[in-house]
Amino acid sequence: MIWPDTVLDILLEEAENMPALLWASQAFREADIEMCLRHPDCAVMSDTLALSTDGPFASQVGSLSGYSWAAGFLQRYVRERNVLSLPDAIRRISGLPAQRLGLSDRGTLTVGAKADICVFDPGRIFRQVDVTNPRQYVDGFQHVLVNGCFAIRAQRRLENNAGQVIRGVQKR
Fold first, then answer.
1. Given CA atoms 46, 23, 129, 81 in this order, what sign does their dihedral have?
2. Which of 20, 117, 125, 171 sees the fewest Cβ atoms within 10 Å?
3. What is the pTM of this model?
4. Does residue 138 sit within a domain?
5. What is the torsional sign of CA 66, 157, 127, 96?
C-alpha cells in the first residue's frame, strides 16, 4: 500500500513535471469487474492519451490503457476467464460505446459507416505490455483497417494515418 503522504511528496517533488507521471493501480476487485461484465449493457472503453513510437507524441509517457487495452480485455475475459463470448465482447468495445457516445455512424459494420476493422486470431491474442514499455503492439492481429484504409497489413504498421480525432458529438 502506498500512503497518501508518499503520493503528495512525489507530486511536490515533480512540480511542473507532474503530467509526465504514470499512475497505475488496480482499483476494482476481479469479482466486481466480472459481475459488471455479465450485465448486457456494460460497455468497455479506454480513456488513454494519444501515443506513438514516432512523431510529436513519441516522448509522451505511456499508459497501459494505450496500445493493448482491447486485446488485454479479449485475452482475459473471453479466452482466459470465459466471462463473455467473442461476439459479445466485440460489441462491448465497439458498437455499444459508440451508441452510448451518440456516434451513430461508428461501431458497426454497416453501409456508410466509418468502420475500423481488425482481422485477428482470437487464440493468438497476447498482451505483452508492461509499465516500463507500454508501446507494444499485440500478437495475433494480422490486419487493421481504419476508415477503410490499412493501418496494419500482414502485421506491419503502415504510414497511413486514416483515423480522425472526434472532438465532440454533433446533434443530428
1. negative
2. 171
3. 0.79
4. yes
5. positive
C-alpha dihedral (92, 96, 101, 104), degrees to nearest 10: 140
HSE-up of residue 157 (Cα within 13 Å, Cβ side)? 11
Q: Dump pLDDT digits (tens) for 132-172.
A: 777 778 889 999 999 889 999 999 989 888 888 787 765 54
pLDDT tens digits for 54-90?
A: 777 777 766 777 778 899 999 999 999 999 999 999 9
d(CA 149, CA 98): 20
Domain that holds residue 37: 28-157
- The H or E element containing residue 74 is helix 69-74
* Backbone φ and ψ of 144, nearest 5°: -135, 125
Q: pLDDT by residue (tens digit) across 7-44?
A: 788 878 877 776 666 566 667 889 999 999 999 999 99
Q: Which residue has the cell 482481422?
A: 119
Using alpha carbons, select from 64, 58, 80, 44 the residue that is nearest to residue 138.
64
Cell of 104: 451513430
Q: Are strands 141-146 and 149-153 parallel, antiparallel or unpaired?
A: antiparallel
What is the number of domains present in the chain? 1
Q: Is residue 81 part of a domain?
A: yes
C-alpha cell at 166: 472526434
Residue 163 inside a domain? The answer is: no
